[in-house]
Amino acid sequence: MEYFVIIISAIFVSNIVLSQFLGVCPFLGVSTKVSTSVGMTGAVIFVITLATITTYLLYYYVLKPFDLVFLRTIVFILVIAALVQMVEIILKKISPPLYQALGIYLPLITTNCAVLGVAILVIQKNFNLMESTVFAISTAVGFGLALIIFASIREQLDLMNIPKGMKGIPIALITAGILSLAFMGFSGIV
Amino acid sequence: MNQWQNFLKGFIKENPVFVLLLGMCPTLGTTTSAINGLGMGLATAFVLTMSNVVISLVKGFIPDKVRIPSFIVIIATFVTLVDLLMAGYTPALHEQLGLYIPLIVVNCIVLGRAEAFASKHGVWLSFLDGLGMGLGFTFALFLLGSTREILGSGSILGYKFIHGDGMLVFVLAPGAFIALGYIIAIMNKIRKA
Amino acid sequence: MASKTKSTLLNMVLTLLIISVVSAGALAYVYSITKKPIEQAQLKKELDAIKEVVPDFSNNPFEEKQIIDAYNGSGKIEVYPAKKDGKTVGYAVKTFTEKGFGGHIEIMVGFLPDGTIEATKVLAHSETPGLGSKMTSEKFKSQFRGFNPAQKKLIVKKDGGDVDAITAATISSRAFCDALDRAYKTLKKEGLIK
């Protein structure tokens, strides 16, 4: 039952982008087309999950026992950067077409606040390893959901008559605001 | 570009938030009030300035291939420094900003300026660039934070001037997006004028 | 401006090593300086919370702090006796719950010796802003002043109790009650309150 709450809240109620503001940069930058959004989502799910598991293990088995908690930020971000590099190299070897498809989005994920954010959040929320993994996957799915919905809307917006001052980012932000408002409606579920 | 222009560009012409559209996450997440926005902005400005300076100093010694990881470690060190100092000396603000303090390390502005400027210029110019961009960022956060606080809580810098609640939506997630959207639209108009 | 150092494997590893060691060293130093202020800030926060939830006292609650196992073995709570002129005027209990919407919630609750709740203060939570976070508001907290769990049920009305839950934040409200209940039942088991 607990897992159900974690999943629903991570995807809908406390959506990582629309309510926690993590991952907003790629959210605004990649969402101009639905196809690229789907690619980004896949990469993000993969990296967030791996990163969370790795940083979790490092935190509880290395940092905490040795009273090195203050090195958390450095260790976490280095792990994420290294992981992204590794994923790039492995993908290039195992599946060149997939690597091509994801291409430029992979390195961008390092600076995606959502990845570091989730790594820190699972520590703050005192989740165990299984809960952290479920949370990480759900969060990434929530990111993807918001991203793809947003991209679909933006593709439509492009064809509309928007006042000159509002074109581009301003109207995108306001749309995101309305989407965020809509997602707030989920808060009564659990 | 002379020194003065270098410093000022971060405020309007190349404001990191309104023009370069970088550092959105903390911009939206920490501006529930003017003070929070101010605090976050200054913390980031500190990290930005210091890391720009250090990176500019050691850029000659860092092999090209490990540039990015090295910058990241340097930036992360200053972020942790700010985190520790705030936890010890400004605990209330530290609690308000919470998760966003360690997130300064992934703030695209910091790594962006390191890569685009500090790694190619001398110490003094890098210092000005970092300071200017950092203060410009602070200005943006303060502006958004004040707007959200006035509209959403009916207060400014903690002083309430209405009874009861304001338009609560502005201190919540949707309001952040909407307020920022409008401010950028207005800024676009001002810059084009 | 290109780097003067070539990207040989040795140089790369050496550079990263040096930078990491210098960073870790600098941070260890700052950590050692700030450790005390951070602890003190935390203590001050707790002392302020204790002052808020129990009647005036003249002792130092930290000196008589007791860490007790919760009545049902679900963890440990901290009990701070508040005394005035040698007489116990109340107990401030740092209790917790893991059932919050965002997980862990820490609450300082003050009990009078007769078992009545004096006041509550939320110390830490990850509840949703605007919803579960309303548990820190006077509107929600005021119903607990003078609430005696021996006479009224420390459960939300929805589940048959006497506590008004926060609208659309039932889980947070239930968690709040869970924390208070843990403190109450443990104090009772230890014989500290009636």
What is the mean predicted local confidence, pLDDT of chain C?
85
SS field, number of helical segments of chain A: 9
For the record, the count of structural domains of chain A works out to: 1
Helix/strand-derived class of chain C?
alpha+beta
Largest sheet of chain A: none
| Total beta strand runs of chain C | 5
Provide the succession of SSEs of chain A.
HHHHHHHHH
Describe the structure using short key phrases.
heterotrimer, B: mainly alpha, 8 helices, 2 strands, C: alpha+beta, 5-stranded antiparallel sheet
Structure description:
The complex is a heterotrimer of chains A (190), B (193) and C (194). Chain A has one domain (28-183). Chain A has nine helices and no strands. Chain A has helices at residues 2-13, 24-30, 34-63, 72-94, 96-102, 105-108, 113-124, 129-157, 169-184. Chain A starts with a helix and ends in a 6-residue tail after the last helix. With 193 residues, chain B is an all-alpha fold. Chain B has a two-stranded antiparallel sheet with strand order 1-2. In chain B, strand 1 and strand 2 (159-160) form a beta hairpin. With 194 residues, chain C is an alpha+beta fold. Chain C has three helices and five strands, in the order H-E-E-E-E-E-H-H. The longest helix of chain C is centred in the first third of the chain and has 45 residues, at 9-53. The radius of gyration of chain C is 23 Å and the shape is elongated. The chains are: A mainly alpha (190), B mainly alpha (193), C alpha+beta (194). Chains in contact: A-B, A-C, B-C. The A-B interface holds A 18-25, 28, 70-74, 76-78, 81, 110-113, 115-117, 120-121, 124, 165-166, 169-174, 176-178, 180-181, 184 and B 21-26, 28-29, 68-69, 72-73, 76-77, 79-80, 83-84, 99, 102-103, 105-108, 111, 169, 172-178, 180-182, 184-186, 188-189.
Architecture blueprint of SSEs:
The complex is a heterotrimer of chains A (190), B (193) and C (194).
Chain A: H1 2-13, H2 24-30, H3 34-63, H4 72-94, H5 96-102, H6 105-108, H7 113-124, H8 129-157, H9 169-184
Chain B: H1 3-8, H2 24-29, H3 34-58, H4 67-89, H5 91-97, H6 108-118, H7 123-153, E1 155-156, E2 159-160, H8 173-192
Helix pairs in contact in B: 3-4, 3-6, 3-7, 4-5, 4-6, 6-7, 7-8
Chain C: H1 9-53, E1 66-69, E2 76-84, E3 87-100, E4 103-111, E5 117-124, H2 138-141, H3 170-189
Antiparallel strand pairs in C: 1-2, 2-3, 3-4, 4-5
